[in-house]
Amino acid sequence: MDYSKQEVAFVDFCVERFPCDQARYSCPIVDTCDAQYDEKDSERTLCRGILKRMKEGEELSEAERKVIQFFSDDKTGMWVGCKLKKENRRCINWRICNINEKKGQKTVCDELLGKLGLLLPDASILERAIESIVCRDRKLIEWQVGEDDMVFYARQPSTGNIGKPDILFKGSKSGTLYVIELKVGMCTREHVGQLASYVGWYKRQNEFKDVKGFLVAEDFHEGAKCAMEVCPDIEPRLYKLNIEMKKPAQEMSRKV
Q1: Staple 35 to which of 45, 61, 162, 250, CB 3.0 to 4.6 Å?
Q2: Are 169 and 176 spatial neighbours (Cβ–Cβ below 8 Å)?
Q3: H/E element holding 215?
């Protein structure tokens, strides 16, 4: 994956300054990190590994992406206008981001989060909304599975400690179970593994003639595409959001 110098510099800036554990909001992997922050020893193995892999253009693990989201998330309470409260020092990219915002372009943080397929706080709401739409109208997406009809089977069903897939459809004639996982933004290879675990779990139950999985996303990272090449039971499907805004009819505007 191609990371810009600004993106690497942002993570480096945060690694040096963010405490792993604080009263208001902790790093999501602070309890499992192999090198928790110690003021006497600022060497943090996992964070240093993130920087090393970014500089070498490697794809990050799910845990490593969560750390970067922690740096970018306003809930930490450490950022004020891209400035750290305690140091009174701005993010190393703040000038570039100001220029980008004026031009209507993405900031360094937004660009990095998009590359990593991370969900912003409001994106989870959008994902649930898309999920509801797909449940109501299965024909919105071209599944192309050779089925006359795919009937709704379940939404967010429990699979024990494996997790909860978004939607289950079932072929009305074939009896095949279709496991649907929706992602807002970029789909990564970790998402392929997530869906593969759901498909494998349902295959173990021996309740269905066959089990197939669909990853539905706005885009797919190259790593995700490669992973699906060796997962014959998982297929990608693209969706595109299109919001149309119009002036209400005169009769409606009068009522409002």
Answers
A1: 45
A2: no
A3: strand 211-220
